[in-house]
Amino acid sequence: MAENEKKVVFSGVQPSGNLTIGNYLGAIKNFSRFSEEYKTFYCVVELHAITVRQVPAELRKRTYETLALYMACGLDPTKNTLFVQSHVPQHAELGWMLDCYTMFGELSRMTQFKDKSAKHSQNINAGLFTYPTLMAADILLYQTDLVPVGIDQKQHLELARDIAIRFNQLYGDTFRVPEGYIPTDTMKIMSLAEPTAKMSKSDTNQNAVVYILDSKDDIIRKFKRAVTDSDTRVCFSEDKPGVSNLMTVYRAFTGKSFEEIEREFDGRGYGDFKLAVGEACADGLAPVRAEFDRLIKDKAYLEEVMKAGAQDAFVNARRTMSKVRRKIGFVNI
Ligand code: TRP
Description:
CATH topology of the largest domain: Rossmann fold
Bound molecules: tryptophan
Low-confidence stretches: none
Shape: globular
CATH class of the largest domain: Alpha Beta
Largest sheet: 3 strands, parallel
CATH superfamily of the largest domain: HUPs
Order of helices and strands: HEHEHHEHHHHEHEHHHHH
Number of domains: 2
Number of helices: 14
Number of strands: 5
CATH architecture of the largest domain: 3-Layer(aba) Sandwich
Distance between the termini: 28 Å
Strand content: 5-15%
Strand order of the largest sheet: 1-2-3
């Protein structure tokens, strides 16, 4: 019974591109800290990924890779439920139902929808629009208490809460209302080329983005080229977005505070600093990369993990769905 009394953590990562150090620091790195205290579900959300066009073979490959990466980042499949979204059909099922309790106006206000529809103006499909409702379904299916996500997902999370509250008001207690867990110490990692924009895995400028699986040389080269400013001082300040971003990365990989970093590089200029950031990042990611390389060779094992995860998720999702069907007024046979 103890397992059922544990609070629940759920999070998802799209397999739509190589994951960046932003995904790593802002989300995945924090996932493993929950597994002792919580029942944890971590999901590769490929249903979300098809809201933009995907090459089928690539999507499949990335689904394996994302799972392997989860594990390489420290998620033990015996302590966490690791699974693939489409393997648990209740996600799509509840997604549809929640569509009917989500307002057009609410979805229209989502900044990610506005951004993505500007970017994919030839393919503004209905899935792109209802993306946040599917995300709400992911979360609410497992009676989730806590959702660790990057700050860019805050608006979607608030919508998930609103939908849960609305449904509960209509039908009585059905869904637990989730809280976000948004790490404030790393926050957003910004683009290395344009430090006022978020580092995005789909950026066409490869120098702007550091991927978790980049080689040491690539990582160091990218940080060397990072855009800073015409000043020379390493200090954290709003009018120095490039330097502040590098300090955020450095702090995340070394555990040093901003004050310590400022002191460390006092009078040393940007060249030294950028190299140190690159090295700290590459060294921090080296063990992740080694473990990933080992895991990705073993498809059979990854499939075993997927299957076991899907089975466990299914049982939990089914419990919520039977409640939802009853509340809405569907006939149970
Ligand atoms: N939308 C999230 C992102 O792009 C991914 C996601 C889908 C997710 N479903 C979720 C995150 C449920 C947390 C919980 O990052």
